[in-house]
Write a structure and sequence with these properties.
TIM Barrel, about 35% helix, Enolase-like, domain 1, 4-stranded antiparallel sheet, 7-stranded parallel sheet, 2 domains, alpha/beta
Length: about 375
């Protein structure tokens, strides 16, 4: 196949409620969608998961828009593509910019699966049609507000609760959550808010029997995480540090973590996500799918990825209604009473894209043709 058109669409989607991490609050998402069209007018959809500012990583909405428009789209257009997995190699000459690359790369995977008339999750090699789901709960204005949100999610059936932590919103908060909710599956996500000076604090939090501490130290570090993991019993999960299968292999060799979070945007799309999953599976390192406040398109790709065999822990793949008054896909993503999602049998991502909804949310768009 040849990609003849790449349409970039930026939309603004207000969240139902703010989401706060150690690096700030988000009230509204600026999301870039990529629509790829081949010579037979077949289309596929992908999503760029970069944030509004370069806080999670160096990429952000505006930087991704420019690199997609000026560099990555021209690299892919009119090239003979035998399989979707080739798209990653086409863009390899451009360093970094993995979230921007993933927007196009995942769209081509969707297109290819539709052309083959198979669900994307099966096309990727997924084996678990039903995936376990957890939720990520941001930092709140009060402990009582946090309790209310946790109770709501437990009542809905979600299998695991992740709470964001940062200095002064950590030990006492986790202690109170444990006292209130007992032995629920609980983890703490630090988003790089700590340093090795905090080893004693993490040793104290060992007593809370958490599933994991996610990315407690610097966003680009593996070595110091290995030092911290030697000092504590709670598994460390690496997130921001892992951009490739090679990164995962090094982290595993150094014993820097016992769990790895895979995010499609962070690693650059499905091809690299599959490589990371394989490395982890062969080394008995559990993986799970992290979330980036995606719209339904990105969420659908996360569902497909989460069916791969190595994804053995509940991921941050939750229902559309947790974030959006109205999503941009139909049906919207829903969760069973048992806290799981069933990957759809329909070809491609398995959901219809609501173009009318996208048009209402659009702030800019461009068509790039070969």
């Amino acid at each position: 196949m040849k990609i003849k058109t790449i349409e970039l669409i930026e939309i603004k989607m207000p969240l139902i409620s703010f989401f706060e991490t150690s690096f700030g609050r988000t009230y509204e998402r600026q999301i870039i969608l990529a629509r790829v069209v081949d010579e037979q007018n077949n289309e596929g959809w992908g999503e760029c998961t970069a944030g509004e500012t370069p806080s999670y990583c160096e990429e952000w909405t505006n930087s991704c828009w420019e690199v997609l428009r000026e560099i990555l789209a021209p690299v892919v257009l009119d090239e003979e593509i035998e399989t979707a997995s080739q798209v990653w190699n086409l863009m390899k000459k451009v360093r970094g910019n993995r979230m921007a690359k993933a927007a196009i790369e995942t769209a081509v995977w969707d297109l290819e699966a539709k052309k083959l008339n198979v669900p994307l999750w099966k096309h990727l090699g997924g084996i678990n049609q039903e995936i376990a789901c957890g939720v990520s709960i941001g930092i709140q204005d009060s402990v009582e507000q946090l309790f209310d949100k946790i109770q709501t999610e437990l009542d809905t059936g979600y299998q695991r609760i992740k709470i964001k932590i940062k200095p002064d919103w950590d030990y006492q908060i986790i202690k109170k959550v444990r006292e209130k909710f007992g032995d629920i599956l609980l983890m703490g996500d630090a988003n790089s808010a700590y340093s090795l000076n905090d080893i004693d604090l993490f040793k104290q939090m060992d007593g809370f029997n958490l599933m994991m501490f996610e990315q407690p130290l610097a966003h680009d570090d593996i070595f110091d995480h290995a030092k911290l993991q030697r000092e504590i019993k709670t598994p460390i999960c690496l997130d921001e540090s892992i951009h490739s299968a090679e990164d995962a292999g090094k982290a595993i060799e150094l014993n820097a973590c016992k769990i790895i979070n895979i995010k499609l945007g962070r690693v650059g799309g499905h091809s690299e996500a599959k490589r990371v999953e394989e490395v982890c599976r062969k080394n008995n390192i559990p993986v799970w799918c992290g979330g980036m406040l995606e719209s339904g398109i990105g969420r659908a790709h996360n569902i497909a990825m989460s069916t791969l065999g190595g994804f053995t822990l509940p991921g941050d793949v939750s229902a559309s209604k947790r974030y959006w008054h109205e999503d941009i896909i139909e049906p919207e993503v829903s969760v069973t009473p048992n806290g799981s999602i069933i990957a759809p049998e329909k070809a491609g991502i398995g959901f219809e894209v609501k173009r009318n909804r996208i048009d209402k949310l659009t702030v800019r768009k461009i068509e790039i043709k070969s």
